[in-house]
Amino acid sequence: MDQDLGxxxxxxxxxxSRSAVICGCxxxxxxxxxxxxxxxxxxxxxxxxxxxxxxxxxxxxxxxxPDCVKxxxxxxxxxxxxxxxxxxxxxxxxxxxxxxxxxxCNRMMFWSKTKDLAxxxxxxxxxxMEDTLLGSVLDxxxxxxxxxxxxxxxxxxxxxxECENNPVKSFWKRGSTEFAAVACGNTTxxxxxxxxxxxxxxxxxxIEVTQFTSDRMRSLTVIMVTNDVVVSNCTNxxxxxxxxxxxxxxxxxxxxxxxxxxxxxxxxxDTCAPCW
Length: 276
Ligand code: APR
What we know:
Blueprint: H1 2-40, H2 45-60, H3 68-77, H4 93-98, E1 109-112, H5 115-122, H6 133-138, H7 167-181, E2 185-192, H8 204-211, E3 217-226, H9 237-245, E4 251-258, H10 259-267
Bound molecules: adenosine-5-diphosphoribose.
């Protein structure tokens, strides 16, 4: 009898240790097959999607529209399952119609190679592309898909200049095109006076200029931001290219303003008086 009891205890112990080995193996397989590749390939769809929805819902909290789940779905439709170098700007058409930019007439600001300063100056006084719903949700983010996968990847994606039709660049081209197309009233563009070609035909701002229409826009004031060493001012050749592209019905103005004047001006709280 005692012998039988001892036998069954030993058998139970053997079964328990076999189950522990099986459990251990299962965890190891899960780690190898799911977690490790996900981390290595930068598959953090969960985090990226959660951040997207969180930011979107914060912005739409008051109006309740557009529906952020629909916005996410329209967004991922553009690039998921595609070669990350084959996402043209048109892929975002549906996204843009789901969450179109809402223009703020007479307060719209464009920029080229002056991102930080333009946002410092525009802060709650002017509206930039990065202040729109999609612009603010996606600013500073990287994303792409892969052929045959339904995931969103946030690393291992092509760089900005690696291929023209990458998901990030195509989004900014398409979103900015729309933002510019609805621009209205008196508008501003902040350009960099510390570089030789403040208006570059290769920039997204150059695409935006072609979208400006005198049906909506009255004037464009170019602010040439200068530093101690002035490389370009309002007489710069590249500005002639800008004027050639501009709808002749839009009044063109150019002003030179120093970076320190802009910084000082923005230090005055609670005023949206122009700094130029
Ligand atoms: N990676 C990710 N995003 C980038 C990168 C990059 N390497 N480079 C630029 N961008 C994004 C910026 O965040 C910005 O929103 O693309 C946009 C254009 O950046 P720039 O090339 O520095 O500027 P530019 O081509 O002159 O166009 C700026 O585009 O975003 C609109 O309305 C905005 O008027 C502005 C214009």
